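Page 47, continued from p. 46.
Same chain as before, 374 aa.
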Amino acid sequence: MTRPNIHSDHDANGVCLRISGALLTQSLEAVEQAFTQVKPLGGNVTFDLSGVEALDTGGAWLIADLAQRARAAGAQVSYEGLSPAYSALLKTVAQSIPDEPGAVSERRSFADWVARVGARTVGAWNDTLSMLGFLGLTLHRLARTIVMPWRLRKAALVSQMEEVGFKAIPIVALMGFLIGVVLAFQGATQLKQFGAEIFVVELISISVLRELGILLTAIIVAGRSGSAFTASIGSMKVQEEIDAMRTLGLDPIEVLVIPRVVALLIMLPILGFIADIAALIGGGLMSWIDLDVSPGMFATRLKENTGIWQFAIGMIKAPFFALVIGVIACWQAMQVKGSAQSVGQRTTASVVQSIFMVIALDALFSIFFSVLEI
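Result:
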């Protein structure tokens, strides 16, 4: 196609701007400066577009912008020689150009900063109330499902259990194994200085069974499954499928939220148990390699010096972590507004809030069990 070009002719009737060639976005760089340098005067300005071979939105914008500047200078603008299809495109682009440039944001003062902080504080408080209300609604539907188990959608529950639990086993097991290896290696480095290598068994077992196993599993599930919950339900919100459910008399909490929350309540303790076993295997293997603590000795000390409560404390936390992850993920999905960008923002917020709440809840449990001296 011909290179785009613009040429101006002056006569007694005004100015004639002859534009030719292919005005396509990828070739506008060659003619953009020439368009900018045109200074239309008052009078009549005629755009002769009979030589235009191709036109897209970028080229139409250059023409429409030049025409707008000519009108701003008091000129009467007319077009000649443009095909109907290109004429419709040019008209659409011209109507989309704002009449006035966007306002430049003023420099914000300290009072504006205080107002912004206050608005965000009020917004955070309203979000907290909304999330607590959603938690109460979810617990109500969950209690109703326990009383009337036939209301539970079993196919959706099994599907979510597979997504949340079965498909997460490899990454959870690998994470647990590596955590055990790291704890044994780092513990061995320090304990060797005091000749207390044998205590690496207690270091690994108590830290994994009581804290790290279930905590890191919950973090992985929050990043993996919580984000999936928010993205899937949020996409349904954007496509108005949730509104369609309500129109059909279906409860979105019962149809979408409860199967996911129940799947987390069932599978997170199982995943935590798998992570614990994998971590003990990794720690035992590293202790054998680095400290010459045989598997038999490792198992004996594990049985003698690690009480069942160390494991029970980790498992007690699991349902609470699952409920927090499920409720936050689904609540964030319900807050999605009608755009794909909102889905991404809410998914990010879901992961961040879930991980933060899991860690905060784990800290509260640690304080609680310390007060009880367990």
